[in-house]
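User: quick one, sequence for these tokens?
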């Protein structure tokens, strides 16, 4: 993706943020809208209007972000009882569509989801058997399919072939299949399509009407291959309702973190900048980029790039990241990016410092 509109939105919105409160996450609505709208435009251009866009809460579960997204997507994907209760707190569950995945739900939450006519994706045959009853006439299952290059299959998630054999006595009740297999590319997407068709055929799952392809669409989008990918699944499964549930793709680039330099010092010809937040705590999955620096101090023109060791505010020696940037001074505000997905939801809590505030703008 090479879109000047996106870059302009990002820079303009960052410039509008008041640099008064740090550390703080900011999530930019216009960027969330940009990604949602871009994907919906691709869907609307397909020959068959059979794809729905869901949002995966595990990427960013900030209530204001979820509320904003509720007007842009067709439904939500949740992965825990916590996320289910979060939705219940802010929405009437009957008013929203959702898919529930995962292994961490209480039995009472599973029963409640089923009774509310929402789709609970059973992870295994043993889990399903605990909840088989007359009310559960429409069964959704998650598949364990070794198609992605990013996952080592011996995965513990999804119905194995042995599980699927055990479904034969209630195969007519299976109406929905979900396949979540990490980052997608066109190659492994074709493998997924082939695997799903084979499973439906071999196990005679003739009443399946919904297929959920999960998340992991980021690379396809940024390589300008997502439209081709959507067209591929749409044409291969014309008679089905298809669901995609990107989380990271919709919100990752919407997030920036503002953090202040509280100390600058030289040690053995190396420059250390101590920040007012912990980089170790915030970046358990990804490491952010240093996008910009704001300062009220004068700088020399034509500054050269300098090497910095930017350190978090913990006692952990490895709480640092290396960056090159123009001169940074004590008191400057650093803007880290993109931090809209899998930062706040995956943060660590060393020294009890996971209290960074959030705001949607």
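Assistant:
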């Amino acid at each position: 993706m090479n879109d000047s509109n996106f870059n302009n939105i990002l820079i303009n919105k960052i410039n509008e943020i008041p640099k008064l409160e740090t550390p703080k996450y900011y999530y930019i609505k216009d960027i969330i809208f940009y990604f949602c709208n871009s994907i919906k435009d691709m869907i609307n251009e397909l020959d068959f209007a059979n794809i729905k866009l869901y949002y995966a809460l595990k990427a960013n579960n900030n209530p204001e972000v979820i509320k904003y997204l509720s007007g842009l997507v067709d439904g939500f994907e949740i992965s825990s009882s916590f996320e289910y209760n979060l939705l219940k707190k802010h929405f009437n569950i009957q008013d929203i569509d959702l898919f529930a995945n995962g292994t961490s739900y209480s039995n009472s939450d599973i029963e409640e989801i089923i009774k509310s006519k929402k789709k609970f994706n059973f992870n295994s045959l043993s889990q399903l058997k605990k909840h088989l009853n007359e009310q559960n006439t429409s069964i959704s299952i998650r598949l364990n399919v070794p198609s992605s290059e990013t996952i080592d299959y011996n995965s513990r998630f999804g119905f194995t072939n042995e599980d699927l054999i055990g479904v034969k006595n209630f195969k007519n009740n299976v109406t929905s299949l979900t396949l979540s297999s990490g980052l997608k590319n066109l190659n492994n997407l074709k493998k997924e399509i082939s695997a799903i068709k084979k499973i439906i055929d071999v196990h005679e799952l003739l009443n399946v009407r919904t297929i959920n392809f999960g998340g992991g669409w980021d690379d396809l989008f940024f390589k300008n291959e997502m439209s081709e990918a959507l067209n591929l699944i749409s044409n291969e499964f014309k008679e089905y309702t298809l669901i995609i549930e990107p989380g990271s793709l919709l919100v990752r680039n919407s997030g920036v973190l503002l953090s202040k330099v509280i100390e600058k010092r030289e040690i053995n010809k190396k420059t250390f900048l101590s920040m007012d937040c912990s980089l170790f705590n915030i970046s358990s999955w990804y490491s952010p980029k240093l996008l910009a620096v704001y300062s009220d101090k004068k700088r020399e023109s034509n500054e050269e790039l300098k090497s910095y060791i930017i350190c978090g505010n913990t006692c952990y020696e490895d709480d640092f990241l290396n960056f090159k940037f123009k001169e940074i001074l004590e008191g400057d505000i650093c803007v880290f990016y993109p931090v809209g997905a899998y930062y706040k939801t995956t943060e660590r809590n060393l020294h009890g410092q996971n209290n960074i505030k959030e705001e949607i703008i």
